[in-house]
Amino acid sequence: MAYPYLPGSGTEAFKGVSVVLGVMISLGSSTIVGQLFSGFMLLYARVFKVGDFVRIGDVEGTVDAQGLFATKITTPWNDEMSIPNAVVASSTLRNYSRSKSPDGPLLATRVTIGYDAAWRQVEALLLLAAERTEGLKRAPAPFVRHWSLADFNVEYELNAHIERPEERIAVLTALHANVQDAFNEHGVRIMSPHDLGDPASAKVVPPPQWYPGPARRKAE
Questions:
Q1: Domain 106-209 is of which CATH architecture?
Q2: Percent of the chain predicted with pLDDT > 70
Q3: Are residues 214 and 148 in contact, defined by beta-carbon separation less than 8 angstroms?
Q4: Angle at 62 between CA 56 and CA 68, to 5 degrees
């Protein structure tokens, strides 16, 4: 409405400048509008909420804020990350805090063991490691899947329900330590990820050698 009253609005130069400015505003606003629509889509789709522990692309952490333009996440390393909603909407999103099962989400890890190890023993060792790990539910009981029969080894997957999804990394670290201890105790060699050789001696660490310097035994 005010355009005809601007000084020089009728000149060709003013019209040219106005066209350039209009194009610049249109191109610049497209990104903002895209972020805004992505924010509305995530808000109404309710794929996650504040407090959920999620993985968006390569970023994993707890959702601190969900805005119209960006989502803020705090990683397990206490880094605060702001992810544009357009990136969130176009990325693979995994919500560890939600599960269709009433027992909650599963925590899974895989190991590869040689064919010379009895699979029943491998299953028992993996379940023993899960039993020793704090933060994993005892009911329903953990279970083992035989994931694949490869050329040189068998890949097993241990699954257990986790009590607090936001502690996933800490619990997984403890589980991996207990898996190594359990297999070393019984002399079963872990071949993860690609151990193709067959040495004369088993690739295990016997219990008397678990605490060489500077490692220290934890207080009971």
A1: 2-Layer Sandwich (3.30)
A2: 72
A3: no
A4: 65
Other Cβ atoms closer than 10 A to 75: 13
Cα-based torsion angle of the residue sequence 38, 40, 41, 45 in order, rounded to the nearest 10 degrees: 140
* C-alpha distance from residue 62 to each of 34, 54, 101 (Å): 24, 6, 21
Return the DSSP state at 136: B
Between CA 150 and CA 120 the distance in angstroms is 18
- Summarize pLDDT for 40-60 with one digit per residue, the tens: 677 777 788 888 888 888 888
Distance of CA 136 to the CA centre of its chain: 17
Banded model confidence at residue 172, pLDDT cuts 50, 70, 90: very high
CATH topology of domain 1-97: SH3 type barrels. (2.30.30)
Question: For the chain, where are the E strands, in sequence order?
Answer: 53-56, 59-66, 70-74, 80-84, 93-95, 106-113, 143-149, 154-161
**pTM, rounded to two decimals:** 0.67
pLDDT confidence of residue 114: 84
Are 94 and 48 spatial neighbours (Cβ–Cβ below 8 Å)?
no
- Contact predicate 112/118, CB 8 Å: no
